[in-house]
Each structure stands twice: as C-alpha cells, then as structure tokens.
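General statements about sequence and structure are easier to judge against a single worked case. Part of our work consisted of pairing the sequence of a single chain with a tokenised description of its backbone. The amino acid sequence and the backbone structure tokens for this protein are reproduced below.

***
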Amino acid sequence: MSEESSERRANPATADDDATPDGTDSDVDQDGQVGDEEAATTPEDTDESAGSPADDTDLASRVEEYDADLAGEVAAVESRLAEAESELEAKDERIDELEDALARSKADFKNYKKRAKRREEEIRERATEDFVGRIVSVRDNLVRALEQEEGADIRPGVESTVEEFDRILAEENVSEISPEIGADVDPTRHEVLMRVDADQPEGTVAEVYRPGYEMAGSVIREAQVTVSEGGSDDGDADDGNES
C-alpha cells in the first residue's frame, strides 16, 4: 500500500474537503465562491461582443437577421437615399456652374457699359468737332466781310453768311422758333419779356424780340416775345366816341 493511501486513511477530513458531493474536484476561493462564476460574462459584455461584428455590415444586413421583409424596405430606403444624395451633389455642381456663369455675365455687362459709354463719348466728340469745323467757316466769312474797304456794301456778304449758317443748323436738325405776330403764347417755347399796348388780341404775341431754337423737338433756347394787352383797341374806341 502506498504512502498516499495511508495519509488519506489517517486524515479523512482532508480528503472530503478536496472532493465535491458528486465525487469531482473543484477549486474554491477564499470567499467560498466557485471559480466558474468568475468566468461568467455580464449582459453588457455580451452586447458589446455581439455589436462589434455588426458594425462592419450595412443596416439592411443587420435587420435581415431579425426580419427579412423589413430588411428589404430598409434596403429600398437606403437606395433612394443614395440616389437623393447623388442628385443633390449634381445640383450643387449645377448651382456652382450657374453662379460662375452669372458672375461672368455681370462682368461682361459691366465691360459692355464701359465700352458703350466710351463709344458715346467718342461719337459726341466727333460730332462736336465736325460742327465746330463747319461753324468756323461762317466766322471766316464774317471776318472777310469786315475786312472790306470802308464804304463798301457788305450786306450781300452778310446775307450769304447767314444763309450758310442756317444751312448748317438745318443739317444738325436745328430749327428756328419764331412765332407769328398775333399767335398764342406757348410758355414751353416762348419767354415773355413784357406786356405792351398793341393791335393784336390780348394775350397774343405782339413782337418777336429774339428768335429761339429747338433741336429734334427739344427746345434749346426759348423765343423772347412781347405780349399784347389789347390796349390799342380801347384807345381806338375812345377816339371814335370823341369824334
């Protein structure tokens, strides 16, 4: 008989402590809890371990584990969402293109306005130069008339100069404002200098002191006129009564 068997027969309590009621051996800690309970996992540990592999799959795949029909609907929603995101991205690109086009159009229009303004100024300058070039010829004729010998009849030369001047004004679409005697006064085209006793009806033009001018329907200078008060008619009537 071995020494181990002799020790067990000598210390039966020790043999009972090392054995479980069913005859199997088990490790017991100081608190009397079985070591297998320490190896048990908590619910949180179970959820975390279960959620880790699911992070690598899409939502539809995860739902399919529980409901195949719902997984199909989720997949359809995800597909529509992807299409919407694609359309939104395309529209954002289109908006950027339109904004760039608008910026270019604004810049082109601004440059066009600048060019149009410069062109208008150039046309005005050329028109002024042309008018001055023609008007100085009238001055030349007046100077030549004054340079004639004293006592010479300069009237024909002056009349010719006036005709040339009128021709130049007509070419520039300038017309004279010279109302007829007895015509109604037009406040937009006539400047009344004074009211005088005249044979004309009251409130009508008695005399044109200085003609006016208009260009293409726009008044450049009003004609200066005197207006009749109609006093002569009353005077004639008094003279007739006295006789």
The chain has a mean pLDDT of 75. Strands lie at 174-177, 190-196, 205-210, 212-215, 218-221, 223-228. Helices lie at 3-10, 12-17, 35-38, 43-54, 59-64, 68-146, 155-171, 231-242.
